[in-house]
Structure formats: C-alpha cells, structure tokens
Amino acid sequence: MKIIVCAKQVPDTTEVKIDPVKGTLIRDGVPSILNPDDANALEAALQIKDADPDTTVTIVSMGPPQATEMIRECLAMGADNGILLSDRAFGGADTIATSSQIAAAIRKIADYDIIFAGRQAIDGDTAQVGPQIARRLGLPVVTYVQKIREFKDGKVIVERQLEDGYEVLEVQMPCLLTAVKELNTPRYMTVHGIMDAYKADIPVWNHDDLGLAPECCGLNASPTQVLRSFTPAPKGKGEMAAGSVKDMTETLVDRLNEKHLI
Amino acid sequence: MNAYLEPKHEMVRKLVRQFAETELTKEVIDEIEETHEYPKEIFDKMAKCGFYGMRVPQELGGQGADYRSYVIMAEELARVSVVSNIWATTPNSLAGGPILNEGTDEQKEKYLKPVMNGEMKICFALTEPEAGSDPSGMTTTAVKDGDDYILNGRKCFITMAPIADYAIVFARTNPDPKAREISAFIVDMKLEGVSTGAPEKKMGVIGCPTSDVILNNVRVSKDALLGEEGSGLRNALATLDVGRMACAAQAVGVAEAALEEAIKYSKERKQFGKPLCKHQAIAFMLADMATEVEAMRGLLYQAAWMKDKGSKEVGKFASMAKYYCAEKANEICGKAVQIHGGYGFMKDYKVERFYRDARVMTIYEGTSQVQQMVISRAILK
Ligand SMILES: Cc1cc2nc3c(=O)[nH]c(=O)nc-3n(C[C@H](O)[C@H](O)[C@H](O)COP(=O)(O)OP(=O)(O)OC[C@H]3O[C@@H](n4cnc5c(N)ncnc54)[C@H](O)[C@@H]3O)c2cc1C
Predict the structure, then answer these.
(1) Which of A8, B83, B137, B206 has the fewest beta carbons under 10 Å from its own?
(2) Per the domain annotation, does A260 fall within a domain?
C-alpha cells in the first residue's frame, strides 16, 4: 500500500502565552511540534505498515524551512520519506490556498492508496484542509476517523466519531481519512530512526515544482482576510454537566426550566 | 543551544525527554522506591526505543548513534529517574561494552543482540571485597583444565547480579599476583557453583539490585573467554572509560532536576513575608547552582564530542567530566535540599531522592580520587 500523511509543524499551544496588551500570540521561544492529530494520522499509517511491510509512508508538509525538523521526526517514528512544500510564495496561505498547494503536491506524487491527515491543527483549529484536499483531488473523504476496522477489496472500513457514538463507513480507496486522537497512541521515535532521519534527503518543492503560478499561491490565493485578532473577555465560570448524554440533557433542560427560558 | 551538539542530538533529547516525562510518572517512581522493583513494562519500552544499543553499529543490530547521543540519553533519563538511567546505560556500557570491544562475531550474535533487545541481562563483575579502586589486586582465579577453565572467587557490589542471565567475570589466569594477567569470561549464572548474595540494602538508586557473585569451582569452556587470555583488564578499563561519560551525564541530569525543583520551590515558599528566592542568600545559591550546571554540561558535551571526533586526549576529559559532574551534582543536590528546608528532608519531595541518588556518583565507575589520579597523571607526564 502507498500512504501519504499530511503533517504540519505547529507552535506548542500549551506553551503559547497571549500578549495582554496587543491581544496577539507570543510565539517567541515557543517550541514547534508535530501537530498532535497529525501524529495520530502518522501512527495509523505506520500501523498499516507494521502489518504489511511493503507499505510506504510519505510525509507531505507545507511550512517554512525549519519544518524539515518535524519531517525528520516523522521519519524517526518510521515514515519512509518526506517532502517539504516551502516557498516565499506560499506565505500567508489560508485553508483554500493551503489545500490547493498540498493537492498539487499529491497530484505530482500521483501514486497512493490512502491519504491521512489530522482532524485539525492546534494553531488554526479549522479542520478544513483535509476535506478540501479530498475535494480538490475528487476523492472520498471520511473525517473524524476513530478506528480503522479492515481493508477489503480495495475498500477500507472505518469508524467515524460522532458526538454520541460512531458510524461505520465503507469507503473506496484511494480516499482521504482525517484522524482524531482516539484513533491510536502515537509511538515514540527510535534512536536508530533518528540516526537514519538525519541522513535522509528531504526534497523541498516550490511553486514551480507544483506547477502553480505565484498568483495562485499563498496570500494571493487566499480569500480569507484576518481583520483583527483578540482574546475574548473571560466569561464567568459556567456549570459543567456530567454523566451520560441523557443525564446531561436532563440537567440542561432542568436548568433552562428553572430560569424560565423554555 | 550548545556548540558541541547537532540537531540530531537535540532530537534524541526530545525523544528521551518525551519518554521520561510520559512513562516515568510520580506514581511509577514512588512505586519503584516502595517495592524496590523496576516495572518490566518500562524496561521493555526502553528497549523498543533503542536505548540499550546506542553505540552499537546498525549492521550489528544497534542504533548507530554517537557518544553525544548516548550522554544526552543518560542525562535526560537521570533528570527524571536516576535508576532508570542505570537500567538503560548498563546494557550499553558494563554489559555490552566488553563484548563490543573484544567479542567474537558469535559472541556478539549470542549476547550483544539479546542484550540490546532487552531479552537478556548481563552484569559486569570486576570489583571484589579486597579490590575496588585497584582491580589489579583481584584474587578471583581461572585455572586452565584441558579445554575448560575453573573459576573461583567472590565479586561484590555487582549491579543487576541477582537478576542477570550472564556475568562478565574478570579473573586472574596467571596465579602470580605480579603478572597483571587478568582475563574476562562470560559466565552463565545458572552454571553449577555460581550463586549471588542477598541484594544490598542501598542508600539510593533503589530499584536496581546489587549483590555479590560467588564462584565456587565453576567450570566454563574456552568459548566463554572474552578476548584473549590476559586482555581482561584492558577491556574492563576501556569499558569503564565509556561508563565514565555516562556517569557524568547522569550527574548532569540529576543536578538539572535538583536545580529546577529548587527554583520552583523558592518561588512558592514564603518566609519573612516574601518568597525564598527574593532573599539574596537563596537567590545567589541558585545562581551558583545554575552556573555549575552549565559548566558541567559544557565539560560533558566537550568530552563526548572529543570521543566522537577520535581525539587522543579524551581519556583525561572523560575523567574530568566524571569527577567534576559527580562532585558538583552532590553539592547541587545538597543545596536543593537546603533550599527546601525541612520539607527537603521528607520523601514527599523529589530532592530527597535526588540527594540520595547522587551520592553514589562520586564512588562507582571510578571514585573521584581515582579520577584525580587519572587527570593528574595526564597533566604531569
Ligand atoms: C551501587 C553500586 C553499584 C556498583 N556496581 C558495580 C558493578 O556493576 N560492577 C563492579 O565491578 N563494581 C561495581 N561497583 C563497585 C564500585 O566500582 C566500587 O565500589 C568502586 O570502584 C570503589 O571501590 P571500593 O568500594 O572498594 O572502595 P576503595 O577502593 O576501598 O576506596 C575507598 C576510598 O579510598 C579512596 N582511594 C582508594 N585508593 C586510593 C588512592 N590510591 N589514592 C587516594 N584515594 C584512594 C577511594 O577514592 C575511596 O574514597 C558498584 C558500587 C556501588 C556502590
């Protein structure tokens, strides 16, 4: 099987602080990490490879040159190779532009059975890029995959997480699956893997390599415009309902009744 | 950032730190201290990450890492749990070292591979009740009998002996005490005549048993000989050379952890109406500790870098690193306890364990005085 994993290097948001005056994120000195959901996506690919050693796992990541470190981390966990999409022209990309660039890279790779992505990146929380890539490539997509059940006749059977349970879906490959953290526990790197990862050649593709004109990339191709970013004023401490969904619903209805809202 | 380290070394640090902080939780460590047992599950997970065969070439099934990667592993494990670091470094140095140095291909296949995979445990039996700092004074003998050797003697303070599958035993193959003829043998612990003493009751590094190994007319075949007859002491000293570096790294790790705890506590604890760290005497103590930790790290990474570059002077630097880091770790852990006051004397606080664990570092793998001998010899020749 040939698997592509889309992975992003993100600031470790557990370490990010907010500038109280400007309301912006203080990114200085914040370590960069492999986006957590992407680590689950990679682990899913590596488990397929554990079961079938003929599998190859390729990482595709868009980011600044430093993101090669994150690709090496993926190689040290067991991925076979990685490609970095990096170009000044890619800067300022929103999800539309990002998915167009990544889809172009995947078209260039051409040969694949499954594309994995994380559900969402912790720095943007949009959960849009995975499904957009699938749309651009004309592939079926299943988001929120919490379990991969089996492969059968060119199809994969997965469980898709819902708020209260899951649904079982059979999907034709090639397809794109987005991973949630419940899918698995990502493995550690190995020392052997780290040593090999630093010998590996990680090609960097720019807009020419992707066959995209600069106007079709990055900020130029991003309809999203950020007008202002701010920290919402903290709300008072709410009441957390606990128990099963049924219990919580009952509590909620009681509270709304008490307040004469319904 | 450090001039001696490359990105791959920082990646090794990232792996080991992630591992230590995820697996070696307070609950796990408390349980080890209480039961004196090390969890097999964690031992196995360390094997999977490759911690037991760091410097062994990949062709032999090892990790193919360099000395800097190795010392960073030791530093990061010791930062959370010194005893975990002993479990991880022993297969690399005391168990794997002598076999990697002088083992035949068959011996490497039979012993080194399973040691690296965590499937076999080998202890290193050099020290004797009457021969510690001066191993050449050992009295354990190996007398040739046809194709076999008969071993007799007693070894003491042997790490992992009670649970080891094999021991690398150093014994005198020439009965003349002046003929420094010492050889190394790989001895199956199940052989007739091999026994171990009761595990020692130790001050620190709880969770890795240490005991005597007693050899009473133990018959081993000549295949058990490691290297040549008479090459044992050379092999032991070469092994300890490497161990020295890991021991220095372990001291750096525990000192860093003690410093971190002391800083944290000094900000929380208030006396005379302000946090401890706002009292100059405490703030300056912390400044000294932080400065010393950086100096320790610098010396350690330099020694490891020199080893990676094949420098001839590395022996002196490895001894300097072991000596300085072990002594300073003791001072720093002592100061961290001091900053914690009475609380630091209680087992509820990490620094109590750090203080006990650091104590052995100036003793094993060559005492501080032995390191001073090595260093002075190198500078006075
Ligand atoms: C927890 C633990 C684990 C150990 N694990 C192992 C193991 O796995 N395998 C193994 O073989 N050994 C092991 N040892 C033994 C260790 O290596 C020895 O304890 C160490 O070499 C010191 O020997 P000694 O205890 O006999 O002390 P001694 O050699 O008797 O030294 C006593 C004191 O005298 C000083 N001294 C000795 N000679 C001189 C001199 N010429 N000049 C100045 N001062 C001197 C020493 O520095 C020390 O301060 C272990 C020890 C401990 C505590």
Answers:
(1) B137
(2) no
